[in-house]
Design brief:
The complex is a heterodimer of chains A (about 325) and B (about 270). Helices cover about 75% and strands about 0% of the residues of chain A. Chain A contains 15 helices and no strands. In chain A, helix 5 runs antiparallel to helix 6, helix 7 packs across helix 9 and helix 10 packs antiparallel against helix 11. The radius of gyration of chain A is 24 Å and the shape is globular. Chain B is an all-alpha fold. Chain B has 2 domains: about 40 residues, no CATH class; about 210 residues, MetI-like fold (Orthogonal Bundle). Chain B is built from 13 helices and no strands. The two termini of chain B are about 35 Å apart. Classes of the chains: A mainly alpha (about 325), B mainly alpha (about 270). At the A-B interface, helix 1, helix 2, helix 6, helix 7 and helix 8 of A face helix 1, helix 2, helix 4, helix 5 and helix 6 of B.
């Protein structure tokens, strides 16, 4: 329904405004584009040259201050800094933990969000509203606070340990373990996934579910063959944004994770600051970016595909 | 239909248990930290503190560094949001209503900029900041925080503008309303919920931004979240708890303002590339 209306709008705007909008539209979209190009694109580009051993020009100062700097030995640079990182046992441990947390947390977030959203779509009522409202709460809590609150809640003298001690149960101290990172990332990622998936499921017409039910489809068939496939795009959007967010997360693993191994977000900061090895720090950032880009491609493809299917492209 | 699906074997007990577990999982940490703001002494494994006190609150308000951080946050974030609106809302209108060349590339560029790990970007941005003399400056902090708001302030209003029915505008034009009147009373009005959600999300993104602000601002400019980093290391947990409550107030107020629209799908709409 929504997409049909959209399509009409777009045609409408094309006919009524003629050839003008092309240039005007481009012009209007320039300011944010310029900001992003200058303050995100340019630094990333300069950072890329630095990671490849270009130590002159804008990289001169940082190359003097930093330690273990590799200078280029080919016209295109050198891969020595990449070599350093790939053969660093710390990095391998960090990468393993980062991927582990990203995969596990994203899966948990999706399962949790999907079950709550399905409950809301199929049964609804007050309890569904309570569940959705609860899951949205983390959206409004600054991440520094959430990290610290979870830190104290699962810590050595935290609530979980205190509470269970009174029943003679020794609840494990989760703070400073990978489990705490998973708890923290699930906690902070839940709202976005719920909002995406629940809005995707709400858009599916009742009639479709009714007719499947009339044909004798079980609840699980309705979920597996109608609801989940029709909400595929929002689910993929939720999955990609959640995993990209977790992949590059910093505050949560800093407050909640172990010192070693840690997630790459924290290690990038350590290498840049504490260890003063900016080149290796940027190499790690590019490795994380490469993984994130792989996920981003999934997101863009899924969007384009769904736009094409509904006739918007 | 509801009756049919109630036959799912989700017993009442099961769903109640699930709600209880989710409540502990989500609210537990917040409540536990919040209670500490009023606790005198609290020793493990006591379930209750030894007494209640307000002295941690006076400690926060009398500490000039903490008070400055609060002031900085309350000044910087609104400025960031207003600048972001000026820069992004026209672009959002263009992306939502006009089919210009490069429109899709524009949306995807904003998205890919968002998927570079923030912490890596902040490391990379230092070079540029030194060159432009932005390190340790107010403008530098504003720009860093602005970067995190762009995707919200562009995508969500773009979807909202796109959803305004064209025929409503045409009807108003036919009835003799000027272009500006139509824009103000119909287009802008109908897109308002989306813009409101974008404003709230941008404010929160700016208000919560800690790492970039720390890298660029410290030691000259501290905001509440960057202050929080040092707070949890150097002060008793009760002080951090008080500060957390203060830091959460703007967010909770905004929650009340925009909750309906956010849960109504404005945020979700914005994240589907159209």
């Amino acid at each position: 329904m929504i997409s049909l209306r959209r399509k009409k709008n777009k045609e409408g705007s094309l006919t009524s405004q003629g050839g003008g909008p092309s240039l005007l539209g481009l012009g209007l979209s320039l300011p944010p584009l310029l900001i992003v190009l200058v303050f995100v694109g340019l630094p990333i580009l300069i950072g890329l040259t630095f990671s490849l051993g270009f130590t002159t020009g804008p990289n001169r100062v940082i190359a003097i201050i930093g330690q273990q700097i590799h200078k280029k030995n080919h016209w295109w640079g050198t891969l020595s800094a990449y070599n350093d990182v790939i053969h660093d046992s710390r990095f391998l441990g960090d990468l393993g933990l980062t991927i582990f947390v990203t995969v596990l947390s994203t899966t948990l977030v999706l399962l949790l969000a999907l079950s709550i959203a399905l409950y809301q779509r199929l049964i609804g009522g007050r309890k569904a509203a309570v569940l959705v409202t609860l899951s949205i709460v983390p959206l409004f809590v600054p991440v520094v606070i959430s990290a610290w609150a979870i830190h104290t809640f699962y810590g050595g003298d935290g609530f979980m340990k205190t509470f269970f001690t009174h029943f003679g149960v020794d609840f494990p101290t989760l703070t400073s373990t990978p489990s705490a990172i998973v708890i923290g990332t699930v906690w902070t990622s839940l709202p976005f996934a719920i909002l995406m998936i629940s809005s995707g499921l709400q858009a599916i017409p009742d009639a479709l579910i009714e007719s499947a039910k009339d044909c004798g489809a079980s609840v699980f068939r309705v979920i597996a063959n109608i609801l989940v496939p029709l909400a595929k795009t929002p689910i993929i959007i939720a999955a990609s944004f959640t995993s990209i967010g977790i992949l590059g997360s910093f505050t949560i693993p800093l407050f909640l994770g172990p010192n070693q191994p840690t997630m790459l977000g924290v290690e990038i900061s350590n290498f840049f600051g504490a260890y003063n090895r900016p080149q290796q720090s940027l190499v790690m950032a590019f490795i994380v970016f490469a993984i994130a880009s792989g996920i981003a491609v999934l997101y863009v493809r899924s969007n384009i595909k769904s736009a094409r299917e509904s006739g918007r492209l | 239909m509801a009756k049919f699906f109630k036959s799912i074997n989700l017993s009442r007990i099961g769903i109640n248990l699930f709600i209880a577990l989710l409540a502990v999982f989500i609210l537990g940490p917040l409540v536990w930290l919040g209670v500490h703001a009023f606790a005198a002494d609290w020793h493990y494994p006591n379930l209750y503190p030894s007494g209640l006190t307000m002295r941690w609150w006076s400690k926060v308000f009398l500490d000039s560094a903490l008070a400055t951080a609060i002031k900085n946050s309350l000044i910087i974030s609104p400025i960031v949001v207003i600048i972001s609106m000026f820069i992004c809302l026209p672009a959002a209108y263009a992306a939502g209503r006009m089919n210009f060349f490069g429109r899709k590339a524009f949306m995807i560029t904003l998205f890919s900029a968002n998927s570079f790990p923030k912490i890596g970007l902040f490391a990379a941005i230092a070079t540029l900041y030194y060159a432009l003399n932005l390190m340790g400056t107010f403008v530098g902090v504003v720009i860093i925080q602005l970067l995190g708001t762009i995707i919200y302030m562009t995508w969500i209003p773009a979807a909202a503008f796109a959803a305004v029915p064209k025929n409503l505008e045409e009807a108003a034009r036919d009835a003799g309303a000027s272009k500006f009147t139509v824009f103000r009373t119909i287009t802008l009005r109908l897109a308002m919920p989306g813009i409101l959600v974008a404003i709230v999300m941008s404010f929160l993104a700016s208000f919560d931004e800690a790492q970039g602000t720390y890298l660029v601002g410290a030691p000259a400019i501290f905001t509440m979240p960057t202050e929080m980093y040092s707070l949890v290391q150097n002060y008793p947990i009760q002080v951090a708890a008080v500060f957390s409550i203060l830091l959460a107030i703007p967010s909770v107020l905004l929650l009340g303002l925009a909750r309906k629209h956010i849960m109504g799908g404005q945020l979700a709409e914005g994240f589907q590339l159209k």
